[in-house]
Amino acid sequence: MDNLIQINNNNFINFNSNKYNTVKLTDVLKNIFQNNKGNTITEETLLSLYYIFDQSIIASLEILDKELIRKYKFLPSERSFYVIEGRKGSKHMCLIDGDYCSCPSFNFVVLLKSESVYATEIMSNVKIEEFDDSEYQNKVKEIEEASLKTPTHRKGKN
């Protein structure tokens, strides 16, 4: 029972956890959407997600609502990554399988302070853009150049 979270009165989710007992949002969402028709989220489910992920679920839903996320898929290799449009037009690369995002809040809250699970970038109803494999490196470089830089990355700073 250690790896179970109750989502509603009838459903439990078996999640994968690491040594820090963090919950992967993708595991929770896959289970929710497998059990709900039409990819809808009930009020009860939203309350459960809020209980698990706190304020980060609100930011995640806002990203979806504003359609600020794209999936870049490269063919024929099937490699992919997600790009989230941040404030002021900045773009951040999100690696779902690697549990990583290049955004400043992920770096500060998750990596430096270890206070939050990674929940901002929900991956449902994402627009997919397909590219040839030969464009992979160029797209990665393009996203890195558009990323918001921290003050330590400004010219003249070490």
Automatic annotation (TrEMBL):
GO terms for cellular component: Shu complex. It comes from the Eukaryota. GO terms for biological process: double-strand break repair via homologous recombination. This is SWIM-type domain-containing protein. It comes from Dictyostelium purpureum (Slime mold).
